[in-house]
Design a protein that fits this description.
Elements (H helix, E strand, L loop, with lengths): L1 E6 L8 H13 L4 E6 L7 H7 L4 E7 L7 H12 L8 E8 L8 H13 L3 E9 L18 H15 L7 E4 L4 H18 L13
Parallel strand pairs: 1-2, 1-3, 3-4, 4-5, 5-6
Helix pairs in contact: 1-5
């Protein structure tokens, strides 16, 4: 079996999408051939489409953008659709990470990818909405199924098994095992530090000209 892992983040390095795909690779790597692609721009070369056509499953991972799919990735999906690949057995899976604490915020983005899969004649295999994605890259991996990433790692393990069996599952939603109020505090601290680093103050956000 050949699995294509597709990173749809605009970030070339250190993205939450890459972290999630690394987990899929860890779970599937010894049982399938893994090929990796980075969709970081609005167009892809013809060679990429040719390689994707050889895979049995595509696993997309990308960040949530205004309850939907990033614009550059949408352009890539249109390009793939226009390529008219004929493979009714190709399974499509999606992993959407969002800065919101609740993974359910990714529901509509997964449905967009699901609708695209149906339109192009592929098989929708299900997806995973991950809340707290903004903190994933900073959270250490803890052995033994523990730590704040534990629920996400468990969900990714289940999804990996589904992919390897070329089956389908219902869309699932999960969040980090971290108190919501602490996650919110950490997020607020982050943007306050960013404002300060750029010569501004927190109260400046309330003085935006209308």
């Amino acid at each position: 079996m050949k699995i294509a892992l597709i990173n749809g983040s605009p970030k070339v390095k250190n993205s939450a999408s890459g972290t999630l795909l690394d987990e899929i690779k860890c779970c599937c790597g010894e049982k399938a051939e893994i090929v990796e692609f980075g969709f970081h721009a609005a167009q892809m070369p013809a060679e990429t489409i040719e390689e994707l056509a050889k895979a049995d499953a595509w696993v997309f991972a990308f960040p949530l953008y205004v309850d939907g799919i990033p614009g550059h990735l949408l352009s890539c999906l249109v390009q793939l659709e226009e390529a008219c690949l004929q493979n009714p057995q190709l399974h499509i899976y999606g992993i959407v990470n969002c800065g919101f604490y609740e993974g359910i915020q990714a529901e509509f983005a997964l449905k967009i990818l699901q609708n695209w899969s149906v339109k192009t004649g592929f098989v929708w295999g299900g997806g995973l909405g991950v809340g707290g994605g903004g903190a994933l890259a900073m959270m250490p991996k803890v052995e033994g199924g523990k730590g704040p990433r534990a629920p996400i790692e468990k969900a990714l393990s289940v999804l990996s098994d589904t992919i390897l069996k070329r089956k389908a599952q219902e869309n699932q939603y999960v969040s980090v095992a971290f108190p919501r109020f602490l996650y919110r505090m950490a997020a607020q601290l982050g943007w306050r530090q960013t404002i300060k680093a750029n010569g501004g103050k927190s109260r400046d956000l309330g003085n935006i000209p209308k």
